[in-house]
Amino acid sequence: MSGIRHPSAWRPGTVREAAGGIVALTLATFLALTTEMLPVGVLPAMGDELGVSASIAGLLVTVYAFMVAVLAVPLTLWTRHLPRKPLLLATLGAYTLGNVVVALAPSFAVVAAGRAIGGIAHALFFSLSIAYGSRLVAPEFTGRALALVTAGASAGFVLGVPLSTSLGTALGWRVAFGVLAIGCAIALVLVAVLLPAVDVEPAGDPADPERRARRGRLAAVSTANALVYLGQYTVYTYVAVILLAAGLAATGVGPVLLVIGALGLAGTWFAGVTLDRRPRASLLLVLAVMVVALVALGFAFPGLIGVLAAIAAWGAAFGAIASSFQTAAIRTRGATADLIGALVNATANIGIGGGAAIGGAVLAGVGLGWVPIVGAVLVVAGLVVVVVARRAFPALPAR
Q1: pLDDT in tens, 225-265
Q2: Confidence at residue 399, expressed as pLDDT on a 0 to 100 scale
């Protein structure tokens, strides 16, 4: 089986040549992220109708993230010999089905089952999309291609979650999930039409003398990714709580989160124009800005103006993180692109779920003002890995 390649006619080239496929992947990523995060905005309504508390309803997000963390690598290994495009289409079909099940669910148990379908799809989708985006273009364009695909996730935060939440508030959470199911079905069709098929990547040569070193570099990138996401979600999970405690009116939280997401798109743009030229300097800069902004947030709290300024800088910097680590991981060549995507996907979701837990523990223990400081410490730990592991995060991409 290891020799099966399912050859395709596609030959990687420039970003412009791969534009159709990149647009399709970006749209699919937008809907995948919106599917993951939509319950956050409609949890109270879901809990009320289904007869469960908000904390129980919140498990729909937490368990989803941990499902992705646990399943990403095993599912990628299990499907490593299958043709990539049909497998990607299958994940979009599963997203569609999962959202339909949630929209029509008569009970919380059935909602949980629908979310489980989505979690399985998510575990595989992002592993595939990271690898797919890198295979559409020549190596010198990897950073820009992945930044464009990642922009779909940023747009999910900026537009997808607020818009679907507003729709759920106006017409009901079931309608929001139903519309999202239709969007996923449309994305499936567009991916089928626009995305070219790519080859299944063969496993590396076990006798390769560089294999252990490359795996070590990949481990360093994965570790730094997990630490930075831990720091990010230690704070971001409770950003609405921070804003309200700083004196922002409840009606202002949505617009502020929208601005944070828009600034994140600016960070994604910055990554796109720097990752193929000076990836190390770019990543060190955005991590340093994140640390300074989180520390400033901790010291400014509860002053509203200082809190808003610090959150703005923090949001812009984090927008560059996903594509930066994805690109660094792909360039290590420490495994197949699909397995690398799975590791990046899994470690990010470990950070999402673990960060929420850490932030909650800090909030319950020493108080809200310390949440940004703990988040900054975790990001510093990731920054230290980047500084020390110079070969995993080179100054210039290999040509």
Answers
A1: 999 999 998 998 788 788 888 998 877 877 887 788 788 88
A2: 58
The residue type of 181 is A
* Of residues 95, 54, 271, the one with CA closest to residue 184: 95
The per-residue DSSP string of 349-396 comes to HHHHHHHHHHHHHHHHHT-GGGHHHHHHHHHHHHHHHHHH-TTTS-SS
Mean pLDDT of 153-165: 76
284: three-class secondary structure by DSSP: helix
Rounded to whole angstroms, the Cα distance separating 62 from 153 reads 18
Spell out the residues 6+ positions from residue 244 whose beta carbon is closer than 8 angstroms to its own: 250, 253
Give a three-class secondary structure readout of 222-244. HHHHHHHHHHHHHHHCCHHHHHH
Q: Are 184 and 96 in contact (CB under 8 A)?
A: yes
Helix (H) or strand (E) holding 7: none
Q: Are 134 and 15 in contact (CB under 8 A)?
A: no
Phi, then psi, of 137 in degrees rounded to 5: -125, 165
**Could you tell me how many helices (H) and strands (E) the chain has, helices first?**
15, 0
Tell me whether the omega of the peptide bond preceding residue 302 falls within 30 degrees of 0, making it cis: yes
Alpha-carbon gap, residue 222 to 106, rounded angstroms: 40
Token representation of residue 391: 């070969």
pLDDT at 64: 83
Domains 19-194 and 211-388 share a fold: yes
Residues 6+ apart with CB under 8 A from 357: none
Query: What is 19-194's CATH topology?
Result: Growth Hormone; Chain: A; (1.20.1250)
| CA-closest candidate to residue 375, choices 309, 295, 302, 299 | 295
**Residue for token pair 């498990």:** 59
Cα angle 267, 329, 146 (rounded to 5 degrees) comes to 45
Q: The tokens 């003398």 sit on which residue?
A: 209
Enter the CATH code of domain 211-388.
1.20.1250.20
Distance CA 61, CA 121 (A): 14
For the chain, domain boundaries: 19-194, 211-388
| Per-residue pLDDT, 8 | 57
Contact call for residues 236 and 348 (beta carbons, < 8 A): no
Tell me how many degrees the CA angle 386-66-245 measures, rounded to the nearest 5.
Answer: 80
Work out the number of other CB atoms within 10 angstroms of the CB of residue 367. Answer: 11
